[in-house]
Design a protein that fits this description.
about 140 residues; mainly alpha; about 85% helix
């Protein structure tokens, strides 16, 4: 069986599982961890920094999605096809064709959040480090 056919089978099964509230989270977790985990390990061995940024951003966004699920778990139970949409979003984040996590980093996270807070955070951390590791 070719890798493309196998991928379609896995995605099809994940889609069917995601339609049910009880198996949906399981499908999202399995699909959202296995392939990105393998690619993250490959990125560690690769010397390119672009894939490192993509996979680090993916894991931050994946963790944020799961945190929001935890906080608003009772509310998402009433959203029809929530896990199907979440599966689609997670796949958008990690698929090489879309590179969604990299796009979200470049268009939203860096210009809207990090660029404003970067100076304050880094100067605060440098100040903290100098106080903690002060040589007498």
């Amino acid at each position: 069986m070719s890798p493309a056919i196998l991928s379609l089978w896995i995605l099809g099964i994940g889609f069917l599982l995601s339609m049910n509230q009880y198996t949906g989270n399981f499908a999202v977790m399995v699909i959202g961890i296995i392939y990105p985990g393998i690619m993250s390990l490959a990125a560690i061995r690769n010397k390119s920094m672009d894939d490192d940024k993509q996979w680090l951003t993916y894991w931050v966004l994946f963790a944020a999605c799961n945190f929001l699920d935890y906080v608003f778990g009772n509310l998402v139970a009433y959203i029809p096809f929530y896990y199907t949409f979440k599966l689609g979003f997670v796949m958008y984040l990690f698929l090489p064709v879309t590179r969604g996590s990299f796009i979200i980093y470049e268009k939203i996270i860096y210009p809207k959040i990090l660029i404003k807070e970067e100076a304050a955070v880094f100067s605060g951390s440098r100040d903290f480090q100098s106080r903690c590791f002060k040589q007498d």
